[in-house]
Amino acid sequence: MKEKIHPKYVDCVVTCACGNTFTTRSTVEQMNIEICGACHPFFTGKQKFVDTAGRVEKFQKRYGWGNKKEEAAKARAEAEAKGDAEKPQETKPAETKETSGDSAES
User: Fold this and answer.
1) Above 50 in pLDDT, residue 106?
2) Mean pLDDT of 11-31
3) How far apart, in whole angstroms, are the C-alpha atoms of residue 60 and residue 80?
4) Is the entire prediction scored with pTM above 0.85?
5) What would the mean pLDDT of 26-43 be, rounded to a whole number?
6) Are residues 68 and 42 in the same domain?
7) Is 5 left (phi over 0), alpha (psi -120 to 50) or beta?
8) 80-106: buried (b, 16+ CB within 10 Å) or exposed (e) per residue?
9) What is the mean pLDDT of residues 12-38?
10) Is the same domain home to 44 and 59?
11) What's the pLDDT tens digit per position in 48-79?
12) Which CATH number does the domain housing residue 41 bear?
């Protein structure tokens, strides 16, 4: 190996966004990461949305996903506060009727 061309290989403190820290070796002394082995869904078995710049919220808002149960509970609470006996109607997905190709035969 040539001398004086390789970077120094030093102890590195890695800090995850979840708060987990560990020590390894690298050419930098400190690293900040978003996901580590302690919080990654593959290793924990828990589903977790990894959101960068609000992409998950944008998707949920665009396609109507998200907190439907919370929205329905708020609507019910508002209706009860007004004294209305009627419950707000919950939205249901449209039902589709299946048609068979045999309808042309008589």
Assistant:
1) no
2) 93
3) 28
4) no
5) 85
6) no
7) alpha
8) eeeeeeeeeeeeeeeeeeeeeeeeeee
9) 91
10) no
11) 566 666 777 777 778 877 666 677 777 788 88
12) 4.10.80.400
Q: Which two tokens stand for residue 49?
A: 């949305």
Is 105 part of any domain?
no
Q: Could you tell me the residue range of the domain that residue 58 belongs to?
A: 50-82
**Max Cα-Cα span within the chain:** 91
Q: Which residues contact 8 (CB under 8 A, 6 or more apart)?
A: 27
- In this structure, the answer to whether residues 35 and 13 fall within a common structural domain is yes
Is the Cβ–Cβ distance between 7 and 28 less than 8 Å? Answer: no
Q: How far apart are CA 61 and CA 67, in angstroms?
A: 10
- Model confidence at 93, pLDDT cuts 50, 70, 90, reads low
> Three-state DSSP class for 103?
helix
Kindly state whether residue 92 falls inside one of the protein's structural domains. Answer: no
Domain count of the fold of the chain: 2
97 found inside a domain = no
